[in-house]
Write a structure and sequence with these properties.
The structure holds two protein chains of two kinds.
Chain A: H1 8-34, H2 40-49, H3 67-80, H4 82-101, H5 104-115, E1 120-124, E2 140-144, E3 147-158, E4 163-171, E5 181-187, E6 193-195, E7 209-220, E8 224-225, H6 231-267, E9 269-270, E10 273-274, H7 279-307, H8 313-338, H9 340-343, H10 349-359, H11 366-379
Chain B: E1 2-7, E2 10-11, E3 33-34, H1 38-52, E4 57-64, H2 68-79, E5 83-88, H3 97-109, E6 115-119, H4 130-138, E7 142-152, E8 157-164, E9 167-173, E10 177-183, H5 193-199, E11 205-207, H6 240-254
Parallel strand pairs in B: 1-4, 1-6, 4-5, 5-11, 6-10, 7-10
Antiparallel strand pairs in B: 2-3, 7-8, 8-9
Helix pairs in contact in B: 2-5, 3-4
Chain lengths: 382, 259
């Protein structure tokens, strides 16, 4: 039996996220975007309310939510501000490799102290020479006795300037391509770790992004996740878990755009009546609503598939790709509904377009998502 | 200190209310009910007192129908209430406040209570009758519009400020007593995610509806939505001077407010 209704438990989680999003995030969204500013007081409160380490089991101090419940929360947060949401949920991405590839001892050692306090962690996969071609990464890990020495640079790393912990992917042998990639946990305090300047970005400006350099950083063998060569698999399985919430994030941005456009259309007059009475605007709103509904349902289905124990690679790629393309389109149409006012920074819709754009690029560019979708699809016909 | 907090599920402020077909009640269909307003302050005040007086307990009590009454009690547990009692009430929205006070007093009388805290009035009908009625029914002193409630350990008394039109009145009272809260020391807190998850599994003690509840002393004659507002005019302008000139002209010539 298919059931699209939420349980009372799920509704109470969504209510918490909605309340926090509306009363704590939304009032500061425009200012943090304009300045730009990384609003520590908001992130600290998100941590205190239990909204930051959503995927980490309760025994390690996280919230222990399944992907579906994570998605409910992420959509509500993103409705208020996509950039803040990116920074609030980045720990989920950074800590997932420890959940998937870490030993019980490593999970206890890294996750417990991390989650016990307000902390940021960053996921270090992308490099200046390539993001989508993760198998070709250049950061080296050379084994020297009981430790590795890491050398290389990661870029576009969310929350890096504020992170106390990094999960880093490096290769023990570039000629082995994906088979050489190995995952490590590196504390910020390790000698030779440095972060670059805060990048000036088009959107998600309340979030912080920088490069991370590793110059001869010594990492104990104990801090390697899994075996040598397992890193690529850990990274891909991590993204299988975290891609769906990006669909939810995009859905939240799209819903915000639809809400603003619909409300504006009822107030704005042209040719002697509200523009909502013009068919041109009605068709726009109807198409936007379809995109938002479809994005949400695809996201829910992907999350449900993963929570049922499925891999969900196809479903989560479809959800992320469709929801992010929809977010861009819906935000664009919202601006069009606002007309000239929509293009002005004084109104909130142009920010949605800038924020939506990133959801097509990060956590696997949509070109990669389509490659994955086609591969999964064609396998069924071969 | 054993602190009882009376809370009421009320429609969320953003809910669009509809009158039921009978014209005398509100249609609960699609209405989201929440813990809101002064009741939130009462609960916050109870939690602050509990935190300042080790060994204290907060017991949330609510009167009303399923599922909304149980839901606000779970919200209270998520915020920090130790116990929750649901006094079953008739379906529908609103109802006779004296009947509510009777039902609540029955539940409160059967549990330890040094202090009974309520919002000074409910977030929906704003009747403000339950706190004084509880005082009468429990034979305890009652005070309304209270802010800044504290426990004076040396005198074993509650001290508090009553907010009035003219300013404030400083009071003190022995326990047990009934207090209608206007405002707590703090802004009401937000429940944390782990506590929300725990509250879903909390035990809610249910007191069934009385078999022959006393008839209501009051009931609404009619509900109607306010008529849509008309007569608003938008004045378009490019400069403040132009706006002022146009407004003066409208006030003089159309509205005839000025000669």
């Amino acid at each position: 039996m298919v059931d699209f209704s939420l349980s009372a438990d799920q509704e109470s989680l969504r209510d918490l996220a909605r309340k926090f999003a509306r009363s704590d995030m939304a009032p500061h969204a425009a200012e943090c975007d304009r300045t730009p500013r990384f609003p520590e007081e908001i992130y600290r409160k998100a941590y205190e309310l239990g909204l930051m380490n959503l995927n980490v089991p309760v025994e390690f101090g996280g919230s222990g939510l399944k992907v579906f419940e994570q998605c409910l929360i992420v959509e509500e947060l993103a409705h208020a501000c996509g950039g803040m949401t990116t920074s609030v949920i980045a720990n989920c991405l950074a800590l997932e490799p420890i959940l998937l590839g870490g030993s019980p001892e490593q999970q206890e050692r890294f996750l417990k102290p991390f989650c016990a306090e307000y902390n940021f962690a960053s996921f270090g996969l992308t490099e200046p020479s390539g993001g989508s071609d993760a198998g070709g990464l250049q950061t080296r890990a050379r084994r020297e006795g009981d430790h590795y020495v890491l050398d290389g640079e990661k870029c576009f790393i969310t929350n890096a300037p504020h992170a106390s912990l990094f999960t880093v992917f490096a290769t023990v042998d570039p000629s082995r391509r994906t088979k050489g990639i190995t995952a490590f946990v590196v504390p910020r305090t390790a000698r030779g770790v440095s972060t670059g300047k805060d990048e000036e970005k088009m959107g998600h400006r309340a979030s912080s992004t920088s490069t991370v350099r590793f110059d001869g950083v010594e990492v104990p063998v104990n801090d390697r996740l899994g075996e040598e060569g397992e890193g690529f698999s850990i990274a891909m399985r991590t993204l299988d878990q975290t891609r769906t919430p990006i669909g939810a994030l995009a859905t939240g941005i799209a819903q915000a755009a639809l809400d603003l456009a619909a409300a504006y259309s009822l107030k704005r007059q042209s040719f002697g009546k509200p523009i909502s009475e013009h068919q041109a605007i009605q068709i726009k709103l109807a198409n936007m609503a379809q995109a938002v509904h479809a994005a949400r349902l695809l996201t829910w289905q992907a999350a449900w598939t993963i929570d049922q124990g499925g891999k969900g690679t196809l479903e989560s790629s479809i959800a992320k790709c469709f929801a992010s393309d929809s977010a861009l389109h819906v935000a664009d149409e919202a601006i069009q509904t606002f007309g000239g006012y929509g293009y002005m920074k004084e109104y909130p819709v142009e920010k949605l377009l800038r924020d939506a754009k990133l959801t097509q690029i990060y956590e696997g560019a949509n070109e990669i998502q389509r490659t994955v979708i086609a591969r999964e699809l064609l396998r069924r016909y071969a | 200190m054993e602190i009882v907090v009376c809370i009421k599920p009320v429609p969320e402020a953003e809910t669009r209310l509809r009158v039921a077909p009978d014209g005398r009640t509100l249609d609960p269909e699609g209405v989201k009910f929440v813990l809101a307003g002064y009741d939130e302050s009462a609960l916050e005040q109870a939690l602050l007192l509990k935190e300042s007086l080790p060994g204290s307990k907060v017991h949330a009590v609510a009167y009303g129908p399923a599922p909304r009454t149980e839901e606000v009690l779970r919200a209270a547990v998520a915020l920090g209430a130790d116990l929750a009692t649901w006094v079953e009430g008739p379906p529908g929205v609103g109802g006779d406040p004296v009947a509510a006070a009777r039902a609540l007093a029955g539940a409160i009388a059967s549990v330890p209570h040094d202090l009974v805290l309520c919002g000074k009035q409910a977030g929906d009908d704003e009747a403000g009758i339950v706190p004084p009625a509880l005082g009468e029914l429990l034979a305890a002193p009652d005070f309304g519009s209270v802010v800044d409630l504290r426990w004076d350990t040396s005198a074993s008394r509650l001290t508090f400020l009553r907010s009035t039109e003219a300013g404030g009145e400083r009071w003190e009272s022995p326990t047990p007593c009934v207090i209608g809260l206007q405002q707590a020391w703090n802004d009401p807190r937000t429940a944390k995610l782990p506590n929300i998850l725990k509250s879903r599994k909390a035990t809610i003690t249910k007191r069934p509806m009385e078999s022959a509840p006393p008839g209501p002393r009051s009931e609404p004659a009619k509900f109607e939505l306010p008529p849509p507002r008309t007569g608003a005019r938008m004045v378009e302008f490019k400069t403040p001077e132009e706006a002022a000139q146009k407004l003066v002209r409208i006030l003089r010539e159309d509205a005839k407010v000025f000669p």
